[in-house]
Amino acid sequence: MATVPRLLTYQDIPVWRHILIIQWTAQIVSGVVVVALVIWFFTNIGNAIQDRDIPYGFSFLSREYQTPIGEHFIPYESSDTFLYAFGVAITNTLIVAVAGVILATLLGIVIGVARLSGNWLVSKLATVYIEFFRNVPLLVQLLFWFFIILALPPVREGYVIGGMLYVNNGGISLPWPHVSGYAAALTWVALAVVAVVIGVALNKWLSYRETTTGKPSYPLIIGIAAPLLLGAIAWLVLSFATGDSPFFISTPEPQGRFGRIVGGFTARTGLLVMLLGLVIYTASFIAEIVRAGIQSVGRGQTEAARALGLSPMNTLRRVVFPQALRVIIPPLISQCLNLTKNSSLAGAVGYSDLTSVALTMTQTAPAVSIFMLIMGAYLAMSLTWSLIGNLYNRRLQFGGRR
Amino acid sequence: MSRKVLTLVVVLAVAMVALIACQEDNTAAMEALQRENATMESEMAAMEARMAEMESMTAEMMEGGRLETVKARGNLICAGNNSLAGFGAADAAGNVGGFDIDLCRAVAVAVLGDANALEIRPTTAAERGPTMQSGEVDIMSRNTTWTSSRNAQWGNFAPTMFYDGQGFMVPTSLGVNTLAELEGAKICVQQGTTTELNVQDFDNQNNMNLEFVISADNIATNAAYLAGNCDALTTDRSGLVSTRAELDNPADHVILPGTISEEPLGPVVPHGDEQWYDLVSAVMGILIYAEAYGITQSNVPTAVTGDSAVDRLFGLEGDYGQEDMGLSKTAAQDIIRAVGNYGEIYDRHLTPLGLAREGSRNALWSAAPCTDCPKGGQVYTAPLR
Amino acid sequence: MAAQTVPPPAPAPIPDPVLPPRSEVGVTGWLHANLFSAWYNTVLTLVFGLIILLALGFGLNWVFNTAEWTVVVELGGRFIIGQYNTEAACPGQNCFWRPQVALLLVMALLGMAWGMSGNRVARVMALVSAGGTAALALLPYSMETMGLDVRLLLVANLPALALGWALARYTSLGTGARIAMLGVAVFLITLLLLRGLPGVPGLRPVSVIYWGGLMLNLVLAVGGITLSLPIGIALALGRRSSLPVVKVLCVTFIEVFRGVPLITLLFMSQVLVPLAFPENFPLNSLLRAGIVITLFSAAYMAENIRGGLQALHSGQEEAARALGLPGWETTLLISLPQAIRNVIPAIVGQFIGLFKDTSLVYIIGMLDIVEIGRVFVQGNAEYRANAKEVFVFVALVFWVFTYGMSYISQRIEEHLGVGRR
Predict the structure, then answer these.
(1) C49 and C55 Cβ atoms separated by less than 8 Å
(2) Which of C263, C387, C399 sits opposite A147 (nearest CB)?
(3) What chains are in contact with C, requiring at least 3 Cβ pairs below 8 Å?
(4) Is there a contact between B233 and B132 (Cβ–Cβ < 8 Å)?
(5) What is the ipTM of this complex?
(6) What is the block-wise mean pLDDT of chain A (402 residues), using blocks of 10 residues?
(7) Contact (CB<8Å) C277/A44
């Protein structure tokens, strides 16, 4: 214990000039100042709320929302509670975010590869795409797509393709599978799990066989086709056994004097515009990330693979891309996060995302509480993305530093 | 050298930002408060005590402070609409004008003597509530429906200046003639409005099986309707008339008979300042009674007329509580001269849209003081005396 | 040895050079190598060629035949300065000269940058900007709408540019540090000019609510860019700091600001932050929006710079410490410059992002160039049919600025030799 005072007075340096003392004083002072500021800020807000009779608290969450939500993918009635409506809004945001991320990644990879294509026309076209779409604000693009979609004919004069696909300015309607009942749904969930397990197992085994024996085994195709085939057989067997089909495909059909389309699945105007805008915008960033990733793999890798007789496609898929992924994934994750956050612009084009619904809620519920809920929800989403990124990074590091 | 330059730049920047930010004259109390804040940060222990002190100071400043605040600032901040023709809309020259905006102008004249001492803050329907609660605006005149919950949560509603009800507009080609025929229709409705709630009630009560296309503001709502994205547009009837009037071919659209709600529209002021509320209410009364007494922009009396009601209103003899409200004695003279009476404001902005006033709810109740000369309307407010 | 006796062999006749086949050189060669090198490339070329032709045909037809660009001309002033010169903003006087004088100062600054560097990029940029703005004086407005004074001030951008160039060339002002200092001064003077000073004749205060159009986007972007870089650097250093309290504070700040959408933050700055301050506290809506955009961007900037710092070899820092440099000087003089140099593309990307994000101020009722397009075009019956033209125009305006920024960043990278060492 006597070491502490000696340490502090080392070589006759006064105590207050000791690095530890300086550092900790600075830290404590800055910490106290920041905490004091935060407390001051929120106390003031609390006071203002009381002085101005502004409603607050979270009791509203169990009240009926009573307001329509334009688009919802889980059942919603106006008699549902605020809490449930909030869940509906989060679902809407998640759907646009997940679908957007998948589509944007696919498009981004295609365009990123196209930019490096040996075909001059394709590579220039990809460059123009990237340079245009990533340099124009997303809001402008969304508003533009909104007008493009609205310029389609209205529902009664819309295009019908093959009697199944309806395209009009109200959205795109297409046939969609529906499950007949609760019991059937459970059966299908169980079957789906079995099918996925079989598919994954097949995929693993076939790729192992391919890499060890060199026989072409098509692991991806078989891995996907086998579960689908299994599903089809199960459907036939179940229909035969139970007498009626456990799930049916509902086709969209115009109904009533207004020709409203009932049945199937309708991706409405707002969702379409959001997907178009988000995917096209984000893909331009992802394309650049993919390009940088591919370029980070040494030329020697490509040349060696070609020398071994791999086709250009296989070189890309089996040699270059797996190595490029290491560079690609971290910024890709941050683009996914950006896409999720950018979906908050949905209000401008009439899609009922989290922000838009929450803003409507401020009409009948305390704004301060609503803001806390929005912040919490978005922070949770972004932390999830960070988590995914970190997990992936850890896996890569284990594999990479053997 | 470069460090000196950096310091200089930083100091300059801070000074300039401060200068630009605090253009409005600040009272001594404000400066004291700021000093208070600065010292507070370093004294964690004294925090609680000072907090209480500051709270009382803030409360003091807020009490009855709105009028002084507006006078010190030199302009009135009015939350308005910039895209609803007739009520509040921007023209190509960039000026925002309309019925609602003129109500704000009247208040600006009353408080500051200048119809242009006005800052119109564009506000969408959904952000109205939080904007009022933030206390950042002095008044909101933005075709806002007076409801009990808004009264409780947002602010106090001054007298109703326009009586409205929610209706539906459909393309003539659909052949729809009554509200009942809208069953199964897709309806365009604006987010964050009472119309959104009313149409949901209408749907539930009558099992209409409606589907909604919800847009953030009336620009987007109208765009969706005009593109045929929905079968009917619903909003206040006045809004329907104003939208229809602006179309290239108004005859292709018909406003269905029948309303599904009551929509009394009027200005709102923030909670917590009785004097300010009284003042705004009185200004609305001045507009209405000036018309009732037949006083227009061109014949504002400046000398005693002998009609005691007119003389009282225009501050020539007697008074109606100007001093308590913080109005000048002759405020009515300035107001009517600058913006005209209720009828003139109406005629300037709403009559051209085709919103006929004669025989509607928005006619005067009677031409006061003649109680036997009913005009049949609902426009009427607390007598000024 | 023996080789000396052997007479040198007669030089073999030089064979006729085997020329590459005609299909490998010239135009055909280029076409073959770049467009038709394999069957799939041929297919791609044909398919995309067809698509391009169709798109071009459609696009050009729209641009030159279908589209009506008069709306852009008629509302030109609105797109540039919003409602700044309206009667409501500036009652009883013409305030148009104030943004115009600010523009002259910016132009002089551009001229100085050109005069100092003398390189091609700066010259092209300066000449295009000055020429473009001067050309605006020729817009076919009537003299009532666009007075002689306005036109003259626009033309004056050319002499302003020349003056700046001459100042940089022939006086001692032409150094990077001085021009940067003048740049900050010009920005502050611009703010002062636009905002006005109470009591000064001719400089009547104009409320920030009326600042609009491209002017608003640029003011927010320039302010945000200048401030977000230093804040971002501080946050990045804080996040890498070994002091736990500082680190926790910085991490919290960065993650909160990065995790929430900007429009939510903007909205909160408008309705929640005022509650925390006494009424009439001098923190106007533009300032609040600016602060939020800056902090949001700074959080991203911090992550970019942290990336640069992480990529730096630890030997750099160790060598500096071994030479006896104190900790903070090591950071300022050794680590940071290298880290920043390495992440210039990311930083400029963030600047571009910030500029694009200024379009989000619509959510708090400010009329930036996008919202001007919405309110004045879609909200006005006479222009409603021309919304597409307006959005294409606005997209183009943004593109010119953002592409310019990324072009300059590429040139800077080349100049610094990033990736070549």
Answers:
(1) no
(2) C387
(3) A, B
(4) no
(5) 0.88
(6) 52 73 86 93 88 84 92 90 95 96 96 90 93 95 92 91 90 85 78 88 87 80 86 82 75 88 90 96 96 88 90 84 87 93 93 93 88 94 90 67 38
(7) yes
